[in-house]
Write a structure and sequence with these properties.
This protein is of the alpha/beta class. It has 16 helices and 24 strands. Bound molecules: adenosine-5'-triphosphate (ATP) and magnesium ion.
Length: 497
């Protein structure tokens, strides 16, 4: 019996003469999780957008339940039960969870929207998928992770046969990933086919029945669960092996001066945060999601007001009331939420990269465009950023390549202290190791780094010390020699000590 629900044959797609998918043929079976992996810009999102009628292929066919289909638009695919949860969220933040889930198909009583009925239906969904949320909570009060779950729920609450999840776990904690995987298992049991995209290979290996590797717009191969392993996938994805090395001991010079001293930071969410940072040091901030790591970064950067805070830079007390003040004092911050605080999608890659370093590149009060352009172009190769021209709009880049451009922005800025908040979110495994080398280069130049990361592998590879946060406080600062993953988790979780 043929179990295929949807298949692609000989699909080609180019954007402005740049081929993105070349002769791609792939089929997806009923009730299976079929993952697609590949480097940033390999064509994963494009492929799935074609499957869901969001964009149209230049040539090739799509066959759904045995019939060739020529999608005119997304609604046509949705009507057949083909749905996609995008890399970026599309929720109305001022509406409640229930209103978001039923958006465009509101339940009505006469002419009026029946909120009560929608809340009840929504609660039934929460019960079915074991979710601890309230239907009437406004979406703006949710964490990014909860918003992600609502977005998924919005799709599964409707007729669904094929569900595409494009990097659904970038903002989820490990507990929430477990919840999502339970949801996926339930959907699978109902016969739904899931197409799953992620850069997190451990998740891919855990959840997939099949794994297809996409490289520069070509399918390299499809592996079964039994055939697949981490090394094999990496080799197929990027054509070389990647080795991770754990840092055994601190590499900070013994007499390195303290460049940043943060004292008694206090806010609604943070309690008595004090720590210092030495020149040439990478100080990690580990902890569960919501433990307050981003709040610490935003307070130092002047993005949020805090009740009490004393900051000394190079031994002198400084006042930071806004990000502008922080940047003037040589402190820069790469936000974890690039869509909200960083990207100008409508502008060129060039503008996005140089926007924060204009004052470093003026000659006789004029912007030195040529020098800036050269500097910005340099990162195309160094970070392996895929774009046709540096003057292309940011919105035409793949998710991971946008993130690399934001990293390039801060590398272009001649700052002393870099705060990187989840810098490799959505970045493929090959590019990750390139970003790690860049971070190491920065400290060799005498810069200092605060690295917030949920990936313990990233922390143990790069950091000299690790501040572990728990419920708004620093529960322990560990030297890297004692910062095993187990030890970090011990201080991150209450009652685990
Ligand atoms: N609307 C567009 N206009 C021009 N180029 C585009 C457009 N959409 C995608 N591209 C290009 O197509 C290529 C593939 O992009 P796609 O988003 O499919 O990659 P991806 O595999 O999903 O990468 P990531 O892991 O970074 O999300 C990229 O080089 C991207 O710049
Ligand atoms: Mg993508």
């Amino acid at each position: 019996m043929n179990d295929t629900i949807i298949s692609l044959s000989h699909i080609n797609k180019s954007f402005h003469q740049n081929p993105v998918l070349t002769d791609v043929s792939l089929s997806f079976d009923k009730g299976e999780v079929h993952s697609i992996v590949g480097e940033n810009g390999a064509g994963k999102s494009t492929l799935t957008k074609i499957l869901c009628g969001v964009i149209k292929q230049d040539s090739g066919t799509i066959c759904f339940e045995g019939e060739n289909i020529d999608f005119k638009n997304v609604s046509q695919a949705q009507a057949l039960g083909i749905r996609m949860v995008y890399q970026e969220l599309f929720l109305m933040k001022d509406l409640t969870i229930a209103q978001n889930i039923f958006i465009g198909r509101e339940i009505k009583k006469g002419f009026f929207i029946d909120d009560e009925a929608m809340n009840q239906k929504c609660q039934e969904l929460f019960d079915e998928y074991d979710m601890d949320l309230k239907p009437y909570t406004p979406v703006k009060e949710l964490s990014i992770a909860q918003m992600q779950m609502v977005e998924i729920l919005k799709n599964v609450s409707q007729e669904v046969k094929v569900l595409v999840l494009d990097e659904p776990t970038t903002a989820l904690s490990s507990k929430e990933v477990d919840d999502l995987f339970l949801m996926i298992e339930k959907l699978k049991a109902k016969g739904v086919s899931l197409i799953y995209i992620s850069h997190k290979l451990d998740e891919i290996l855990r959840i997939s029945d099949k794994i297809s590797v996409l490289r520069d717009g070509n399918i390299v191969d499809t592996l079964s669960k039994e055939e697949a392993n981490r090394a094999k996938i990496i080799q197929m994805m990027i054509g070389r092996a990647i080795t991770w090395t754990v840092k055994e001991k601190s590499e900070v010079k013994e007499n390195a001066p303290i460049v940043l001293n943060v004292k008694k930071m206090e806010s609604r969410k943070l309690h008595k945060i004090s720590f210092d940072l030495k020149q040439g040091e990478i100080l990690g901030f580990a902890g569960l999601m919501g433990s307050g790591r981003t709040e610490v970064a935003r307070a130092i950067f002047g993005a949020d007001r805090v009740r009490a805070l004393e900051i000394e830079k190079d031994g002198k007390v400084i006042d930071i009331h806004s990000p502008k003040d922080a940047i003037e004092h040589g402190i820069c911050y790469l936000s974890e939420d690039r869509k909200q605080f960083g990207l100008f999608l409508d502008h060129s890659i060039y503008a996005n990269e140089v926007i924060s370093s204009l004052d470093n590149n003026t000659k006789f009060m004029l912007l030195d465009d040529k020098v800036m352009m050269e500097k910005a172009e340099k990162y195309k190769d160094e970070l392996n950023i895929k774009y046709p021209s540096i003057l292309s709009k940011m919105e035409s880049l793949s998710g991971g390549n946008q993130q690399k451009c934001i990293i390039a922005r801060w590398l272009l800025k001649d700052a002393d202290i870099f705060i990187f908040d989840e810098p490799t979110k959505g970045i493929d495994i090959g590019a990750k190791s390139e970003i790690y080398s860049k971070i190491k280069e920065l400290v060799q130049l005498g810069k200092s780094i605060i690295l917030i990361s949920s990936e313990l592998e990233e922390i143990t590879q790069l950091c000299d010390r690790v501040a572990v946060m728990r419920e708004g406080s620093i529960s322990k600062i560990l030297d890297i020699s004692e910062a095993s993953q187990e030890n970090i988790m011990k201080y991150a979780v209450r009652n685990a000590q």
